[in-house]
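RECORD TYPE: inverse folding
INPUT: structure tokens
STRUCTURE:
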């Protein structure tokens, strides 16, 4: 008998990208009923689906090294208490189903005996004989052993190991693995969740549990009132699902306009050489005051030294899901006071840097078109953040990255790009070099025309003005509608003033 799964769960079971299944739905090879897909349909499309095909099971089951295996299991599996609660709830469900089945069985046997008694008293009644045959054959069929539905077994197994959360009213879904809180898992999945401190004191991550159960896994100080608790309110930053399925009611940000401006004093965690002329500036916020931002946004970095204040607008290169650790790419530039401090060691680990923001609206738009990213040199920063966000959302049918280097070490994270391309079938990269940003943009436009113009895509362009304006004009001339073009001019902008 066929079982019904959400697309999200089906992708998790098969170990394929959700975007790949959604594409099959769009092109008609996979059909949905009420938003669900049947296991029969999935096995038709993926006849080789095996228990090991599920990424999560695979990762846990195949680890032979005991110490490493323990660490991975600790990361992927929830705590013993949460596992026990999920198993308990699943066993309850199973016991309910078993009790129902026994009642139905007893009912059918009772009916069969009634009909037999009637046929004995009315031997000439053909309709009664037909009914008795139908009952006897139906009962035999129901009691016959059928091969188990492997995907159904896998689904039950995954329900214990990872929980699926559905968000109302948006309908977004995400899974919670390991020791993640609801907030961490939601941010990792690319959702624009409402929150503040991330550690249980502000109450901004309050959500209402509509169905399912949660377990507290982090301490929290925020006092939820008795009325709030009775209505099902809980804190996303301190709880994880205790049931395998959970429905939450919560408000998500619609876009940059819903993210409040913040000012946080951070400290330099590290300055790392990515290439001879490029540094990774790693700032860390206090545990109780993290930066809420959207992928692709920028912040103003402020450094105060005796007699001198410096303010510099920089795009964040890291993922909003890690809101304590903020990354920035800094290129060597004699005219940029921030770059000078980074390269000559004045901005060293432990130094205080004020972060103000987030700013800008260079963020992913809603939609299901293929995504094309184009970046020049260190303007790869917001593009990297957007790509990580798109991969977490797993909605886009494909992603392509065109990265122009105008400097000798302009491709300072080429290995990261190759790793994406190897890990995701639908991710393509094209690295190019040209010392002139405008000419490099023309080269990229030519490559895009050769590879992409049969497809309707959303284009995200980031770089210096010459790069962005040239590429934008080329794409418009080639017929790309303005609504599918998102551009951000990024030039190091540092203001220094006497304090
Ligand atoms: S984010 Fe502040 S209490 Fe959860």
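DESIGNED SEQUENCE:
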């Amino acid at each position: 008998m066929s079982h019904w799964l959400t697309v999200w769960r089906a992708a998790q079971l098969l170990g394929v990208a959700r975007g790949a299944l959604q594409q099959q739905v769009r092109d008609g090879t996979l059909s949905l009923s009420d938003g669900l897909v049947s296991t029969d349909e999935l096995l038709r499309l993926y006849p080789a689906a095996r228990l090991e095909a599920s990424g999560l099971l695979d990762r846990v089951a195949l680890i032979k090294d005991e110490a490493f295996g323990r660490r991975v299991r600790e990361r992927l599996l929830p705590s013993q208490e949460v596992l026990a609660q999920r198993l308990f709830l699943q066993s309850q469900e199973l016991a309910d189903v078993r009790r129902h089945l026994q009642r139905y069985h007893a009912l059918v046997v009772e009916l069969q005996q009634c009909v037999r008694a009637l046929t004995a008293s009315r031997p000439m009644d053909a309709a009664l004989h037909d009914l008795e045959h139908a009952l006897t054959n139906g009962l035999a069929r129901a009691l016959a052993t059928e091969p188990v539905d492997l995907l159904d077994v896998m689904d039950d197994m995954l329900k214990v190991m990872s929980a699926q959360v559905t968000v109302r009213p948006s309908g977004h879904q995400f899974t919670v693995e390991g020791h993640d809180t609801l907030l961490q898992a939601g941010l990792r999945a690319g959702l624009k969740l409402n929150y503040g401190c991330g550690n249980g004191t502000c109450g901004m991550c309050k959500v209402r549990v509509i169905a399912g159960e949660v377990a507290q896994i982090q301490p929290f100080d925020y006092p939820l009132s008795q009325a709030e608790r009775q209505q099902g309110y809980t804190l996303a930053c301190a709880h994880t699902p205790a049931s395998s399925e959970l429905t939450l009611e919560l408000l998500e940000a619609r876009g940059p306009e819903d993210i409040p401006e913040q000012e946080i004093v951070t400290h330099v965690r590290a300055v790392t050489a990515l290439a001879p002329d490029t540094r990774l500036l790693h700032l860390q916020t206090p545990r109780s005051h993290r930066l809420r931002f959207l992928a692709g946004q920028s912040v103003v970095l402020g450094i105060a030294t005796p007699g001198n204040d410096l303010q510099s607008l920089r795009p964040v290169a890291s993922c909003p899901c890690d809101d304590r650790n903020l990354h920035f790419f800094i290129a060597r530039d004699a005219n940029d006071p921030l770059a000078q401090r980074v390269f000559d060691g004045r901005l060293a680990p432990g130094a205080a840097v004020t972060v103000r923001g987030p700013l800008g609206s260079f963020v992913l738009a809603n939609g299901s078109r293929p995504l094309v990213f184009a970046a020049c040199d260190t303007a790869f920063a917001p593009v990297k953040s957007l790509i990580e966000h798109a991969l977490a959302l797993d909605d886009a049918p494909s992603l392509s990255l065109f990265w122009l280097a105008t400097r000798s070490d302009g491709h300072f994270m080429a290995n990261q790009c190759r790793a994406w391309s190897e890990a995701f079938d639908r991710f393509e990269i094209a690295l190019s070099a040209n010392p002139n940003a405008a000419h490099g943009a023309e080269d990229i436009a030519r490559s895009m025309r050769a590879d992409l113009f049969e497809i309707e895509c959303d284009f995200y362009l980031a770089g210096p003005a010459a790069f962005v304006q040239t590429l934008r004009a080329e794409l418009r001339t080639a017929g790309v509608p303005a609504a599918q073009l998102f551009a951000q001019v990024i030039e190091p902008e540092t203001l220094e003033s006497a304090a």
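NOTES: The two ends are 74 Å apart (CA to CA).
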